[in-house]
Amino acid sequence: MAMDGWGIMQQATELARRGEPFALATVVWRQGPSSSQQGARALITRDGELLGWIGGACAEPVVIREARSVIESGAARLLLLGSPEQFGYRADHGAPGGYGELPEGMTVVPIACQSEGALEVYIEPVLPVPHLVVVGSSPMATTLAELGRALGWQADLIAGQDFTAADATQRSLVVVATQGHDDEGVLERAVAARPAYLGLVGSRRRGEAVLGYLAERGVDRELLAGVRVPAGMDLGSTGHREIAVAILAELVQLHGSGAPTAAAAPDRTGSTARAGRTPARVTPATDPVCGMPVDIGAGSRTTEFQGRVYYFCGPGCQQAFETDPAAYAKRLLTHE
Known about the structure:
By secondary structure, the protein is an alpha/beta fold. It has 3 domains: 19-126, no CATH class; 131-273, 3-Layer(aba) Sandwich (Rossmann fold), CATH 3.40.50.720; 285-335, no CATH class. Helices cover 32% and strands 22% of the residues. A 6-stranded mixed beta sheet has the order 3-2-1-6-4-5, with helices on both faces. Helix 4 (183-192) crosses helix 5 and helix 8 (315-323) crosses helix 9. The radius of gyration is 26 Å and the shape is elongated. The two termini are 34 Å apart.
């Protein structure tokens, strides 16, 4: 989808609001002939949808594949599209006269497609920050929300009577700190949101009583089994500030392990933001003409030769193959 710079930023804001991870790809250098321009940008979603413009038929599938890998790993990389020599490196890095190994964080993908152009594309992940929902009005609840914001998290402090299931999503971290003021009702509404984490501040005995009451009311016992009671790490006898720190420490530990982003997150409007869904892995084919990887899909360009289907990055490579399929098929076979 073509989109100007302002449209890219608007779409990025919307994805971030929904808590959906994505990658931002920026062309930082080009060598003609290339259809892209320096400074061109595009967003790539976790499902592989590209919004914006980053290059033609040869560059786009590679950028999408690498962007999905960047989202999964959380580490940015500089993608070099072209021959290694165009960037000052030899394909045989260890050979005499070579320029050595690529620096960490850089990836060279050979690309031909009847063009001698080249691109450098910087791909950076934009991952959602944790969404902390603290339900309660106590000093501890206020402190916990403030600590969450200090970490750069999205932190909402909501009074118990005002809290509804719509205030949380399946990526939220919900802490119920209502201290006996309708704990049962608030926790029942929180369970309905199916958050990534749900903890109740209170003694273990009080927690057992609340959970038992909800089980008798027919609340799903499997969901209740996931409620953390008491919330936070056990620091012994402490004041409200230390309790807030203990709870935050547990949440930080969960966030570091990736657990809070394990579920898909429906947004407030009822649509589904795929915040934690693991994308289906697609094994790319190799274009027999230019050698670049090509994602296999419904829209792939293909030609069948001697009972095998060959995939192409664009019409130029497909036409070249069809002029001498036996030669290109043999060359591909020797490299597999």
